[in-house]
Each structure stands twice: as C-alpha cells, then as structure tokens.
Amino acid sequence: MNWYHWEHGVLTLNLHVQPKASKDEWAGLHGDRLKLRIKAAPIDGNANRHLIAFIADEFGVSKSACKLITGESGREKRIAISSPKKTPFPARLPALRYFFVTVAFCMNTRRFKTKEQLVFSPCAFCPSPTLQYLLSL
To answer: How many angstroms separate the most distant Cα atoms in the chain?
Structure first.
C-alpha cells in the first residue's frame, strides 16, 4: 500500500498524524504512511479540524475540497483532496521524491498530471525542462 493514491483528480493520502507538535510540518514516511505533525491537541475534534485546514492550505484548495475518509479518532487517517492546486512537499524530504516520479505538477494549467498523462497528452505550454526536473527529483 502506498501513502497516496491518485485517481480521477482526487488525491488520497494515508497519513500518520502526530498531534500536539511544536509546529505544523511534513515529517517524511512512517511505515507505509506519510507522517504529519500538527500543533492542535486531539480534544473535541480540534485536531481533525486543524488537519483539514492545514491540508487545504498546503494543497491550495478550500476546506470543503478535503474530506476525512477514515481515522476520525485515531492517528492513522485517510484524507481525500479534490483537484489539488499545488504540491506542498519540501525537497528536503527524500522519501517523498517517489510522488514526483508518478505525479507531476503542470505550472501552466496549475494541475497535477500523472506520468501517463505526460507521456500520452503532454501540455503544449509546459516547457519540458520543468517537467523533467519534477520527474527527476
């Protein structure tokens, strides 16, 4: 199982969430899940609301475009993000490079494209060095 799944414009993340952290940040992989540290405490759903707001901001979408699928009361969560507009993963996390091999962000159309879409229907506006850079990370 991967830490993400991309299908029909919906990105699903399998997360391991650590509440009550000193700051909100991506922390690499935790087993087969992506670890995320958030500041909010897990009291009365505050952590889940904070998580949705953080994810929405990181991917450049509204909070309504993010849905908590599973894990309402645990640390292991699945979140679906409809039509993400940007990628939040910092280059300092080498474990996340695989994401860019399979999914690239088109700077012109402001959409993610799968490797297959790049091969079979490349964007005429994307300079190939940009896409090659994203795919070679």
So the answer is: 49
Beta strand ranges found along the chain (DSSP E):
4-7, 10-18, 25-30, 33-37, 66-70, 76-82, 103-106, 111-114
Task: Tell me how far apart the alpha carbons of residues 123 and 87 are, in angstroms, rounded to a whole number.
Answer: 18
* Residue limits of CATH 3.30.1200.10 in the chain: 4-82
CATH architecture of 4-82: 2-Layer Sandwich (3.30)
Among residues 74, 73, 92, 103, the alpha carbon closest in space to that of 3 is found at 103
Can you give the pTM of this predicted structure? 0.69
List C-alpha distances in Å: 14 to 35, 52, 93. 9, 14, 17
Question: What is the tens place of the pLDDT at every residue in 89-125?
Answer: 655 555 554 454 445 555 555 565 555 444 434 444 4
